[in-house]
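Record Maleylpyruvate isomerase family mycothiol-dependent enzyme, 256 aa.
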Amino acid sequence: MTLEHGAYCEELVRQTAELRSHLSGADLAATVPTCPDWTLRDLAVHVGGAHRWVDHIVRTRATDMVKWKDVPGPGGPGSDDAAALDAWLAEGAEHCAEALREAGPDLKVWSWMGDATTSFWSRRMTHETAVHRADAAGTVGAPYTLPADVAADALDEWLGIITFVQAFKKSEAPLGEPGQSLHLHATDAPDAEWFIEIGDEGFTWRHAHEKATVALRGPLADVLRVFYRRLPADTPGVEVLGDPAVLDRWLTSTSF
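=>
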């Protein structure tokens, strides 16, 4: 992890404030292009519900799976009023961050990745919020930026999640052919590079600058959004060098 537990908690609140700014004055019934089953309101309720879910996990010191239906108030405010939704989002983020801060980074709690500590959840909620903020920004046409350390850590975390999921889905969704490789290269952040090698038993990755079957280059926030399928790979300012089919297959196979 790039950030400390307390910094993730602060970033969680900040990312939620940025998300709320994208929603301010927007048509909450608008469809989110990168999550076409959702409206902007649905997206906001998903994010706020996730904050309340994690708040509940941490405050109750849960060591077994917690279902959303068992969490108080994850379905949004009682009113359709935009101001009520904004206040509900702000409250959920603050309460989640507060619970995480009070628990500290090392408390053992349940997570869908198995044994975990509260630092898993502070990191996960930061990036959950940041990526869904990209969905909202894209819907309303707002600029999208992220601090370089947050964006780089989001990529690290996403590769960890893919590793975990692939342990259960190898035969269902192979990421590519053994011997193929991908290189992610941020052009605006020093040392923000990733080299991914596909093998017979999955894949490995490391921070490195090496020649690959395909390379994805561009500003770090854009590389993150392409890799998370929040931005098309042919977006101006982003380059795909080498075999684009390798990148397409990876992105398709990781759209969990």
